[in-house]
Amino acid sequence: MGDLDPRILGMLEFIIGYSMAQQSQSRMSSLARSMEAAQGGRSSERVEQIDAKVENLGLIIRALWSLLEEQGMTADQLMDRIEQIQAEIEADMTDDIPNAVPCPSCQSMVSRGMPKCQICGAEVPNNQPHPLDI
Question: CA 59, CA 56: separation in Å to the nearest integer?
Fold first, then answer.
């Protein structure tokens, strides 16, 4: 090998390195495709599980509503109760976050001092730390 022209030797090294990189890249691409397929399979399986649960909940809700209708409950009464429960949930959510402010974009509660909403990423203007916080 010592008799080879250094330019030819350099070209051989380049070609060998290039072909090794191509093989490595091909292996990495194949591995990435395999991982994507496996994750896609798990994701679609999870979506199917969620769909089945939603269908089951829909069936349960229909059964409960039919029982309520048999007892004389009206759709207006149901809507009033839904609104009441929703208001209670919203009140509970704000009670758990002292000194929180609503996000101007999605209305989730953002802790005092946070510059952006943790849910949607919108900037929360004038969300200064509470004056008594150290």
Answer: 5
- Give the 3-state secondary structure of 64-93: HHHHHHHCCCCHHHHHHHHHHHHHHHHHHH
User: H or E element: which one contains 110?
Assistant: strand 109-110
Using a 10 angstrom Cβ sphere, with 0-12 exposed, 13-18 middle and 19 or more buried, the burial of residue 110 is buried
pTM, rounded to two decimals: 0.39
Phi, psi of 91 (to 5 degrees): -65, -40
pLDDT (0 to 100) of residue 129: 65
Alpha-carbon span 117 to 109, nearest angstrom: 8
Each residue's pLDDT tens digit, 56-86: 988 998 898 888 889 998 888 888 888 888 8
Residue 129 in tokens: 């730390």
